[in-house]
Specification:
5 helices, alpha+beta
Length: 131
């Protein structure tokens, strides 16, 4: 990741169609981190839309839960949308394929574990942080 993990918070919210991955700077004035977060998530989105899920394996390893199933997805099986938000950016993942929903949820859980104190589950945390 091009940004500093300790300067950001990763927020993962699972839903019935996939979920949302949100990354925000811990300090809303940290424009350098915000720019890097946005750049990284935009690049990840472009790669994932092409069916290239190799990026997370560079950070989390080849055996990251859910990643093998995501790599089997064909381009278009998962709708992935990038959006800038206050303090960072988010990726929304949607699919009607129940196996891919499960893979996304496992992948979210693995990131929550790997990022430790710099990651939380649920966007309610985001709402409180940005006020």
């Amino acid at each position: 990741m091009p940004f500093t993990l300790a300067s950001t918070t990763h927020i993962f919210t699972k839903d019935a169609e996939g979920g949302v991955q949100l990354v925000v700077a811990k300090k809303s004035s940290d424009t350098a981190q915000i720019k890097l977060v946005r750049q990284h998530l935009k690049e990840i989105c472009e790669q994932f839309l092409k069916g290239d899920f190799s990026g997370p394996s560079h950070i989390h390893g080849q055996d990251m839960p859910g990643l093998a199933d995501l790599k089997l997805a064909k381009p278009g099986q998962i709708d992935i949308a990038y959006k800038e938000v206050k303090g960072g950016a988010k990726l929304s993942y949607k699919t009607s394929d129940i196996a891919l929903v499960s893979a996304l949820h496992k992948w979210f859980d693995a990131q929550l574990h790997d990022h430790g104190k710099d990651a939380v589950q649920g966007h309610a945390h985001f709402e409180g942080m940005m006020k």
